[in-house]
Amino acid sequence: xxxxxxxxxxxxxxxxxxxxxxxxxxxxxxxxxxxxxxxxxxxxxxxxxxxxxxxxxxxxxxxxxxxxxxxxxxxxxxxxxxxxxxxxxxxxxxxxxxxxxxxxxxxxxxxxxxxxxxxxxxxxxxxxxxxxxxxxxxxxxxxxxxxxxxxxxxxxxxxxxxxxxxxxxxxxxxxxxxxxxxxxxxxxxxxxxxxxxxxxxxxxxxxxxxxxxxx
Length: 215
What we know:
It is a single chain. By secondary structure, this protein is an alpha/beta fold. The protein is 52% helix and 17% strand. The protein has 2 domains: 2-57; 65-212, Mannitol-specific EII, Chain A. The protein has 8 helices and 6 strands; from the N terminus they run H-H-H-E-H-H-E-E-E-E-E-H-H-H. Strands 1, 2, 3, 4, 5 and 6 form a 6-stranded mixed beta sheet that branches. A hairpin with a 2-residue loop joins strand 2 and strand 3 (125-126). Helix 2 runs antiparallel to helix 3 (32-57). It is globular and about 60 Å long. The model is unreliable at 5-11 (pLDDT under 50).
């Protein structure tokens, strides 16, 4: 099952395939026949993604994503300049909430991973994440930035929604499941609009429960 989820995570997105194919065709790098093949593959992979993910999650241990949200580590107005400041702010919030024992280790692990592999997904979303020894349960912090955070995102856009995730070592399946759930649900434009429009902490919590961290 873990192999399936890793494969899903590395399957090229349909939209990105189409964009690259159009640019390549216009530049004369590929022929019309190759272009048609790429478009067909993009459409096919998009159609198969949902059933594939459903099959991969079938029979897995049922977890409720919302149970992992640390409500005392939600920052409605995250005022930071870059990714490192954002990670520090949210890890500090988890430490203040008592959700993390070794704050220094968490922060170092997150920043190291961010340096090696950036966690901005594009479309204003970033999910810095790591696995921590001696952590009982997964924990999620959330920050929202109205102005946007420079994160070296693949689409070049600033990040507005940051989900910081720490999971215990040895529950890689749950770790991947949480990442996939957040990315999938926040890609829904209506859910993103509701999260953007939430006026206060209580409304943000409600949207996270009903839209973003729903299974």
